[in-house]
């Protein structure tokens, strides 16, 4: 929201000469200068003029300009983005993991290591789930950051972790600037799982047989054989449903992963691939799934990531429905 | 993400109430703003979900296919119309042999007849074949949602109830009676099925 407001200011500035936009750019420039203070001799005015060039001359939104200018200095310093600490003097603010709702933000979290997963690549030292009272969040610890080993069940104060977002799901990355302090306390990890019941009223595009980027830790869904990050790649097949479950009061967006999709649609990834091969079209899989599932009732339980509920458990609500209680109520009003 | 328009909820209403929902309105002056049909029990509906028995279908188009389906619930008949801009739903109506239980997700549409009456129909987004259990579940769910609306109906406190009060002369009590009848029919069916004497 903060950055969007800034963008609005900048566009007004063209007409009104709003002084505020100018000072905002200056603030951004000072932030960037601060971030690089340990790495590079740069001049605040130089930063500001680069920002101003993008924002005023090329009408780039401020947040995008800031990213671009930051990347320029990263290149110049030969640094990775992770090498930079959060803005403002290296002290990032403590946040509840359930409140994390922004990409590329620097925070401190106090959380329990709930679960360690098997890293899928050598570049990842540890990956798993952190939790505090507000819920849980995925974390990734890079091998090259050379941080201490985290133990399952222990509670840590992690300073300067950076957030990442993918398809509405947030994670935190531990990097070379992250400080790790084990705390002598226990945390009751909150349950952020949601259970919803209703009719499946829509199956959205991007459902059915899809291809994902095979690059390490990427897994982005390919569009016409291209990954947004890595360009043209040989994709790996996956099966999923992006659907809407609606109970007449709320519409919930739900993602069924491969396992949940195979389970609920009664189709395996291999069968889906054969089906698509026979039809010379991957769309047939989504059509088949829609025919089988749309307009029926389901109960879905799983964690909430952004606007999506991830369906860990799915159950079709089949069989007879009890009438008695509703009838008693209908007669009594 | 928070400023992405949220998806319109698919309201649940029986055919008798839906067909009375002839008053439509927008919440803003924007040309593309969603159009809502006003349910007489005091709720706005830009989308509906219902399950019933497809009893008849007919291609009433001239040059292009334009399918009309009659879908019956315990209180009345939903009319759905699907043409070239609803290819999946139109194909479904073309292929289906009535009678069949179907689930429909769609948008309310109104049109004025030559006699000046306003007819309410549904432009389907999807039509799928389901079984009797899904139909029964919908009847109970729709009864619950309708009762919730009737119970909380208060033109003093709620803007859509106030709107219904202003634009309609229907008696809310009638919708409660239809809920009771729909549930009684369902209970009778279930008892008959359990005890086929």
Structural class of the helices, strands and pairings of chain B?
alpha+beta
Secondary-structure element order of chain A, as H and E?
HHHHEEEEEEEEEEEEEHHHEEEH
**Major sheet description of chain B:** 6 strands, mixed
Under CATH, the topology of chain B is which?
Answer: OB fold (Dihydrolipoamide Acetyltransferase, E2P)
Unreliable residue runs of chain B: none
Q: How many runs of DSSP E, i.e. beta strands of chain A?
A: 16
Give the SSE string of chain B: EHEEEEEEHEEHHH
Give the total of beta strands of chain B.
9
CATH superfamily of chain B: Nucleic acid-binding proteins
Question: CATH class of chain B, please?
Answer: Mainly Beta
Tell me the radius of gyration of chain B.
17 Å
- What is the CATH architecture annotation of chain B? Beta Barrel
Number of domains of chain B: 1
Domain module count of chain A: 3
| Mean pLDDT, all residues of chain B | 94
Shape of chain A: globular
Treating each run of at least 4 consecutive H or I residues as one helix, how many helices of chain A?
8
Q: What is the CATH first-level class name of the largest domain in chain A?
A: Mainly Beta
Shape of chain B: globular
The radius of gyration over CA of chain A amounts to 24 Å
Number of helices of chain B: 5
Write the layout of secondary structure elements.
The complex is a heterodimer of chains A (333) and B (197).
Chain A: H1 2-16, H2 19-36, H3 44-57, H4 62-77, E1 93-94, E2 106-117, E3 124-132, E4 135-142, E5 155-166, E6 169-174, E7 179-183, E8 193-203, E9 208-212, E10 226-227, E11 231-232, E12 236-246, E13 251-256, H5 258-265, H6 269-279, H7 283-293, E14 297-305, E15 308-310, E16 313-316, H8 324-332
Parallel strand pairs in A: 1-2, 4-6, 13-15
Antiparallel strand pairs in A: 2-3, 2-5, 3-4, 5-6, 5-7, 8-12, 8-14, 9-12, 10-11, 12-13, 14-15, 14-16
Helix pairs in contact in A: 1-2, 2-3, 2-4, 3-4
Chain B: E1 10-11, H1 15-19, E2 24-26, E3 35-39, E4 43-45, E5 47-59, E6 67-73, E7 76-82, H2 87-95, E8 100-112, E9 118-129, H3 132-151, H4 159-167, H5 172-194
Parallel strand pairs in B: 1-5
Antiparallel strand pairs in B: 2-3, 3-4, 5-6, 5-8, 6-7, 8-9
């Amino acid at each position: 929201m903060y950055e969007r407001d800034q963008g609005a200011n900048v566009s007004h500035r063209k007409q009104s000469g709003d002084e505020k936009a100018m000072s905002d750019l200056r603030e951004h420039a000072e932030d960037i200068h601060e971030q690089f203070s340990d790495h590079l001799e740069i001049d605040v005015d130089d930063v500001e003029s680069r920002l101003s060039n993008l924002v005023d001359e090329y009408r780039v939104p401020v947040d995008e300009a800031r990213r671009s200018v930051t990347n320029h200095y990263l290149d110049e310093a030969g640094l990775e983005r992770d090498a930079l600490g959060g803005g403002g003097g290296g002290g990032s603010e403590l946040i509840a993991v359930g409140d994390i709702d922004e990409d590329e933000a620097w925070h401190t979290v106090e959380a329990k290591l709930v679960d360690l997963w098997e890293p899928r690549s050598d570049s990842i030292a540890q990956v798993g789930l952190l939790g505090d009272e507000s819920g849980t969040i995925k974390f990734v610890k890079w091998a090259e950051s050379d941080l201490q080993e985290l133990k399952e069940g222990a509670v840590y104060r992690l300073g300067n972790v950076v957030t990442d977002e993918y398809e509405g799901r947030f994670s935190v990355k531990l990097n070379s600037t992250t400080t790790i302090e084990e705390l002598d306390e226990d945390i009751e990890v909150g349950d952020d799982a949601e259970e919803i019941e209703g009719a499946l009223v829509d199956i959205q595009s991007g459902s059915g047989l899809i291809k994902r980027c095979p690059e390490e830790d990427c897994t982005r869904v390919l569009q016409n054989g291209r990954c947004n990050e890595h360009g043209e790649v040989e994709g790996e097949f996956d099966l999923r449903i992006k659907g809407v479950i609606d109970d007449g009061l709320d519409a919930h967006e739900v993602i069924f992963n491969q396992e949940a999709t195979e389970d609920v649609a009664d189709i395996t990834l291999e069968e889906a691939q054969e089906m698509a091969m026979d039809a010379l079209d991957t769309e047939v899989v989504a059509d088949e799934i829609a025919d089988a599932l749309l307009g029926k009732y389901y109960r879905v339980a799983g964690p909430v990531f952004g606007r999506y509920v991830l369906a860990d458990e799915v159950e079709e609500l089949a069989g007879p429905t009890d009438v008695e209680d509703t009838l008693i109520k209908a007669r009594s009003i | 993400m928070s400023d992405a328009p949220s998806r319109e909820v698919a309201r649940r209403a029986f055919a008798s109430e839906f067909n009375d929902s002839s008053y439509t309105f927008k919440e803003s002056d924007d040309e593309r703003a969603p159009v809502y049909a006003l349910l007489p029990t005091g709720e706005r509906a830009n989308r509906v979900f219902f399950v019933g028995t497809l009893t008849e279908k007919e291609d009433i188009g001239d040059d292009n296919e334009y399918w009309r389906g009659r879908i019956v619930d315990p209180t009345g008949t939903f009319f759905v119309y699907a043409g070239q801009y609803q290819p999946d739903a139109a194909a479904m109506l073309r292929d289906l042999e009535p009678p069949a239980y179907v689930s429909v997700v769609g948008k309310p549409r109104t049109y004025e007849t030559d006699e000046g009456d306003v007819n309410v129909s549904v432009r389907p987004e999807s039509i799928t074949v389901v079984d009797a259990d899904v139909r029964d579940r919908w009847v109970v769910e729709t009864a619950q949602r309708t009762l919730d609306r009737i119970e909380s109906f208060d033109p003093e406190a709620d803007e859509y109830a106030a709107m219904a009060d202003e634009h309609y002369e229907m008696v809310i009590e009638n919708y409660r009676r239809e809920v009771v009848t729909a549930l009684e029919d369902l209970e009778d069916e279930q008892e008959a099925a359990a005890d086929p004497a």
